[in-house]
Design a protein that fits this description.
Blueprint lengths: L2 H22 L4 H25 L5 H24 L5 H23 L8 H18 L4 H25 L1 H5 L2
């Protein structure tokens, strides 16, 4: 297993650790969880850079990297819903988009086509990660609300863009 794949696997392993720390609820647990989230997020940046620079892109990485991202962000967003920092409708937008885009990619794959991550998907991922980090900090409620809206709107926009740019995949399904 190459280094990018090991970093992706590390991110997957860090998800239950991240959640366990939050549920253990010891003094400073949120700060420890935030540190774990940041480390896991940095593995995402690092594994992609290494894989592209050294041509270490693998089928495992193509599958596991976006899955690890979804696991990490969904875990954090679920925590925020449970903690009352995020309304469930915003998380629902994220989940529906992820299922829909994954379904679109499966249909495309059956036709021998790969749908790569688009610019808006990368913006969505980066802004979601930054907003999650901010939401762990003691920020004013209005900033928390702005973060929720940024997550919801970038997610919605990128999901719509995937379907508009790949409408031919669905038309022939």
């Amino acid at each position: 297993m190459n280094l990018p794949n090991k970093l992706t696997l590390l991110r997957v392993i860090l998800v239950p650790v991240f959640m366990a720390v939050l549920y253990l609820d010891f003094p400073g647990a949120a700060w420890v969880a935030l540190a774990i989230f940041i480390i896991a997020s940095l593995t995402d940046l690092l594994d992609g850079k290494i894989a592209r620079k050294y041509n270490l892109v693998t089928d495992f990485g193509k599958f596991a990297d976006p899955l690890a991202d979804k696991m990490l962000t969904t875990a954090a967003l679920l925590w925020f819903v449970e903690a009352g920092q995020m309304p469930a409708w915003a998380l629902l937008i994220v989940l529906i988009r992820e299922f829909a885009v994954s379904g679109l990619r499966m249909i495309a794959s059956d036709k021998g086509r790969v749908i790569a991550a688009g610019w808006s998907g990368k913006v969505k991922t980066a802004s979601t990660m930054v907003c999650i980090i901010l939401m762990f900090l003691p920020i004013p409620a209005i900033l928390n609300t702005i973060c929720v809206w940024i997550i919801a709107l970038t997610t919605l926009y990128s999901g719509i863009e995937y379907f508009v740019k790949n409408k031919d995949v669905i038309a022939t399904a």
